[in-house]
Amino acid sequence: MPNGFDLRGLAVPVIVAPMAGGPSTPELAAAGTDAGGLGFVAAGYLSADALAERIAAARQLTSGPLGVNLFAPQPSAATREAIDKYAAALAPDVQRYGAELGKPVYNDDAWEAKIEVLLDLRPEVASFTFGLPSVEECKRLRDAGIATVGTVTSVYEAEAATNCGVDAIAVQGPSAGGHRGTFDPVAEPNSQPLSELLAAAVARVSVPVVAAGGLVTADDVERVIEAGAVAAQLGTAFLLADEAGSSPVHRAALQDPKFTETVVTKSFSGRYARGLHNRFIDEHEAQAPFGYPEVHYLTGPLRAGAVRAGDPHGTNVWAGTGFKSIRSGSVAEIMATLA
Ligand SMILES: Cc1cc2nc3c(=O)[nH]c(=O)nc-3n(C[C@H](O)[C@H](O)[C@H](O)COP(=O)(O)O)c2cc1C
Fold first, then answer.
1. β pairing state of 273-276 and 262-265
2. CA–CA separation, 25 vs 53, rounded Å?
3. Cα maximum dimension of the chain
4. Is the pTM of this model over 0.90?
C-alpha cells in the first residue's frame, strides 16, 4: 500500500467491519482501533452532516487510525410496476405491525457530499462497497493521504478496483453477513468460497488484500493471513459487542437457538444480503423485486414496526454463516479471542 496508512501495520490483523443501519457506532470503531485492529465508521444511510459528526465523535474516543465506509452509487434496477406489486404483497405485514409502507425513493446516499466529508476530515482509510469511486475521486482521496480500499466479490471486480487506483482490496466471500458488495445490483452473488477467491485475488493483484466473510474465530483469522491476506475483516463477530449499536431484537435473535441458519435475500432491500432465515424471507422472497435502495425505503417502516414489536421475524437480522460461534463482551475481550 504505497499511499497513506498501511493496513499491514496493524498490531492485530483484524478490521471491525463497517456495519451501517445500527451496529456501527463511534464507540465500536474507536474500540476496534484501541484493541489493536482497525475500526470503521459506516456512512451508509446517514446524511453527510451526520457522518461528519460520527467521524468527529470517533476521533474524540481514540487517537489511533480510523476507517470510513461509503456505499457507492449504483443505477436503479427498480421499475414502478414491480415496486407497486411488491407494495401490495406486503399488505399483511402492514396490518400486522400497524405500520405504513415507506416511500420507495431513489437516492445516491449523498455520495458527493460524503466524499467532501472524507476530504475534509481525512480518516486514515476509506473503503467502498457496491462499486467504486471514479478514477478522479480515488486520486483526490489518495492525494489527501487517505488510503482507499475497494470491496470486491470476484476477481473481475478486484481487477476493476485496482484499475481504479485503490490502495487495497477487501475480498468479501459468500458467507458474509449483510449486503454483498457485488457491483452489479441484479447479478447473482458469486458463490466461490472465500478461500478460492482470496487465493485468486492474491495471485492476480499487486495491492494488499483483506479477507471478509464468515470469519469468527482466531483459527479463521490465522487461516486467511496464512493464505496471503494482510487482515481479516469481521462483522458478525462484533454484533454482540457492548460497544455495538445492534438492536435488542438483533442481539436476542443471534443468540436464539430457534434460528439455525442464514440465507441470502433481497426481500428487505431489493439487493442481496445475508441474514437469519425468518418468516418475512419465507413469505416475501419470491415476490421481492430487485431495486435498491427503493425496496429498502419501502420496507423501512415495516422493519421498524417489527423491531418495536420485538419480532425478529418481520425485520432484517443480518448475520454471516458463523453467527453460532460469536460471543458478547467488550470489543477488547472479543479481539483478545481473535489475536
Ligand atoms: C449488520 C451488518 C451490516 C453491514 N454493513 C456494511 C456496510 O455498511 N458497509 C460494508 O462495506 N459492509 C457492510 N457489511 C459487510 C461487512 O463489511 C463484512 O463484509 C461482513 O460482515 C463479513 O462477514 P461476517 O459478517 O461473516 O464477518 C455489513 C455486515 C453486517 C453483518
1. antiparallel
2. 11
3. 55
4. yes
